Amino acid sequence: MFGIFGVNGPVFRGRLEELPAIRPVTRRRPVEAIGTAGNEFGEIAANPAASPVTSPAASATQAYRQMLHIDEERGPLLHAAQLMTRTVITVRSEDEVVRAWQLLARERIHQAPVLDAAGALVGIVGERDLLTALNLDHDQVRDALARRVADVMSSPVVAADPLTDIRRIAQVMVERDVDGVPIVNEHGRLTGFVSRGDVLRAVVRDPPLSLWR
Question: What are the φ and ψ backbone dihedral angles of 197, each rounded to 5 degrees?
Answer without folding.
Answer: -60, -40
